[in-house]
């Protein structure tokens, strides 16, 4: 929360987006999926605002995963759409949709 507060005070939208991404991941790991959904939504909003395409892809992926866990139906606009980033390794997995890393799912 400290990172988010500082980024907001400095009006650092990039830092705020990164803080929202990080807080969303932390809440997901703790099983606080509703809170994680709020941070992932904010991350997507900021990523769109600043033109961060990789951030948008990551946020959309996180939102889809969280909505699935929460039983929220994903609309046609929210599924995977072809993107110029599909060929990139965005850190967690290649955008082929074939494999994903789920290292935090079984944390105790």
UniProtKB/TrEMBL annotation:
It is found in: Cytoplasm. This is Kinesin light chain. It comes from the Eukaryota. One of its GO terms (molecular function) is G-protein alpha-subunit binding. The lineage of its organism: Eukaryota, Metazoa, Spiralia, Lophotrochozoa, Mollusca. The keyword Cytoplasm applies. Its main location: cytoplasm. InterPro entries: GPSM, TPR-like_helical_dom_sf.
């Amino acid at each position: 929360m400290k990172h988010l507060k500082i980024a907001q005070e400095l009006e650092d939208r990039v830092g705020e987006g990164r803080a929202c991404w990080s807080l969303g991941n932390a809440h997901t790991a703790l099983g606080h999926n509703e809170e994680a959904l709020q941070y992932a939504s904010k991350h997507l909003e900021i990523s769109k605002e600043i033109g961060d395409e990789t951030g948008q892809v990551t946020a959309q992926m996180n939102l889809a995963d969280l909505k699935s866990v929460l039983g929220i139906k994903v609309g046609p606009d929210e599924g995977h759409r072809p993107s110029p980033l599909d060929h990139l390794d965005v850190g967690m997995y290649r955008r082929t949709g074939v494999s994903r890393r789920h290292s935090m799912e079984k944390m105790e």
